[in-house]
Amino acid sequence: MFGLIKAVWQARPVLLSRIKSERGAAGVEYGILVAAIAAVIVAVVFAIGLAVNAAFETVNTELGGGGGEEPPE
Q: Which of 20, 36, 47, 52 is the most exposed place for a label (fewest CB within 10 A)?
């Protein structure tokens, strides 16, 4: 336990300089942008899927139900 505390204490200047550095901020910002773009893509694909499904349901209803059954006379 004391070895871990000693190692962290000795690495403190390096850790503090890394925390104060803004070099890693760009990576976080790019990660957030990628996540936001992915969320938009998922939403658009979901919306398009619902629209396509509604169109197929409309065509299916207009054609007489589908499902391999004979249309009513």
A: 20
pLDDT in tens, 58-72: 988 888 755 555 655
Alpha carbon 12 to its chain centroid, in Å, reads 35
Q: What is the pLDDT of residue 60?
A: 85
Q: What's the rounded Cα separation, in Å, for the pair 43 and 41?
A: 5
CB of 22 within 8 A of CB of 29? no
Q: Are the C-beta atoms of residues 64 and 72 closer than 8 Å to each other? A: yes
Q: Which residue has the tokens 């499902």?
A: 67
pLDDT tens, position by position, 23-33:
666 777 888 99
Structure tokens belonging to residue 56: 């197929």
Pair of tokens at residue 2: 């004391």
Q: Are 65 and 71 in contact (CB under 8 A)?
A: yes
Integer Cα distance of 39 and 43 in angstroms: 6
